[in-house]
Amino acid sequence: MSLSGLRDLSIIATPPESRLAIQTFVSRQDTALIQEAVRREMRRGGQVYYLHNKVKDIERVARDLAAILPEARIRVAHGQMHERELEAAMLDFYHRRFDILLCTTIVESGIDVPSANTIIIDRADTFGLAQLHQLRGRVGRSHHRAYAYLLTPPRESMTPDAEKRLDALASLGDLGAGFALATHDLEIRGAGELLGEGQSGQIQEIGFDLYRQMLDRAVGAFKRGEVPEADADELMSATEVELGATALLPEEYIPDVHIRLVLYKRISSAKDDAALRALKVELIDRFGLLPEATETLFAATALKLMASPLAIAKIEAGPDVGRLNFARNSRIDPARLIALVQSDAKRYRLEGDARLVFFRDMPDVETRVEHIQTLLEKLGAPTSNEAEAAVDKR
Question: What is the rounded distance in angstroms from the CA atom of residue 121 to the CA atom of residue 127?
Fold first, then answer.
């Protein structure tokens, strides 16, 4: 009902005061990394969860940890222990009588130890996304920076879904990211129909985001008193932007093909310029300065966002000429368009009722983007500030 606009959805995304986001790292099983993570936490007077979810060999893991961390005090906790013994272990951990709690997923809920701010999860690829998010939440319960280490086997031995889950968790470490993680989980597993007899796999055919976009458009049309567009091609259409230059995430910039695909999706799904700027900052932080082709990709996406309210089907621009192709349901004011053409007949020309041609000296991508932005503003597209104000108002 919330997706369809019949009811509002309230998301709890405001963290407690002074709470910091948990730094999350996905890494191969590595003795040196475990030693570094544990010793750093112990140096600042904290404690560590080490999660190993197999009771049959948990004592062996305890001996291995004792061998590589002889200075650490280690205790074991799991669901097959006697309840008094388990209670004693948890109380001792809470009162900081030892440093590392080697445990199973028994600590997934109901545990709040402010002094424990590092968690190491062994074989993180075997857990579900919601479970990993819940386990990660066992640390960072105070004002200290918390760390979560997701240890995995080699990539080639993991399932594709496991890789997607780990990448989603690592990329969404901000406080209040639970809802975004839930939508990733829906996309990975397939949500099924929201209503009806078929309850698996239907949304997965087109992806949750596209399903939601189609639903939003249909509900918006009903609210405006219009008949929703039944043509699937029309529903799935988006402004196409061709700037006469390469626009992509180069392989040498981001070698991992899965990460590139995830980032393409996040860029194309950005709702406004603020979201695009945040993505730019993230890419620069993770991979370094943006290549020219990636700058062009962000510029083209910004133009798509700007042109979307006007229902422009395609934008083309070259060194000396550009074109705007209007969609069938274009929302450009005809009077504004005619006034623009009449104001400078040498620079603007209408070709039929579906294309505006403009002539400019545009030797590079940056100049083309500036001219197109100016033209779209003249046609009634909201500026960046106006668009963000509209979003804030909604």
Answer: 10
Ranges in the chain, pLDDT < 70: 1-6, 173, 176, 190-209, 228-237, 383-394
DSSP reduced 3-state for 4: coil
Q: What are phi and psi of 121, to 5 degrees?
A: -110, 115
The helix/strand/coil state of 312 is strand
Q: Residue 33: enclosing H or E segment and its boundaries?
A: helix 31-43
Using a 10 angstrom Cβ sphere, with 0-12 exposed, 13-18 middle and 19 or more buried, the burial of residue 93 is buried
The pLDDT, as a whole number, for residue 198 is: 53
- Condensed to tens digits (0 to 9), the pLDDT of residues 137-182 reads 899 888 888 999 999 999 888 988 898 888 888 877 677 677 777 7
Name all domains of the chain by residue range, CATH numbers in brackets: 23-159 (3.40.50.300), 240-393 (3.90.1150.50)
Q: Three-class SS of residue 145?
A: coil
Handedness of CA 70, 71, 77, 83 (dihedral sign): positive
Q: In what order do the strands lie in the sheet with 355-359?
A: 240-242, 312-317, 321-326, 355-359, 348-351
Would the CA dihedral through 131, 134, 139, 143 be positive or negative?
A: positive
Token digits of residue 26: 């996905």
Residues in the chain: 394
Strand pairing class (116-121; 100-103): unpaired
Of the candidates 354, 329, 394, 344, the one whose C-alpha atom is nearest the C-alpha of residue 374 is 344
User: Is 368 within 8 Å of 317 (Cβ atoms)?
Assistant: yes
Cβ-contact 150, 124 below 8 angstroms: yes
Distance CA 156, CA 394 (A): 45
What is 334-360 written as a DSSP string?
Answer: HHHHHHHHHH-TTTEEEETTTEEEEE-
Report which of 128, 210, 202, 135 is spatially closest to residue 164, judged by C-alpha positions.
Answer: 128
Could you give the C-alpha distances from 127 to 165, 170, 376, in angstroms and in order? 9, 14, 48
Please choose, from the candidates 51, 194, 214, 247, the residue with its C-alpha nearest in 3D space to the C-alpha of residue 132. Answer: 51
> Are 326 and 354 contacting, i.e. CB atoms less than 8 angstroms apart?
yes
Tokens of 205: 């055919």
DSSP 3-state helix, strand, coil percentages of the chain (rounded to 5)? Answer: 45, 15, 40
Q: The whole model's pTM is what?
A: 0.50
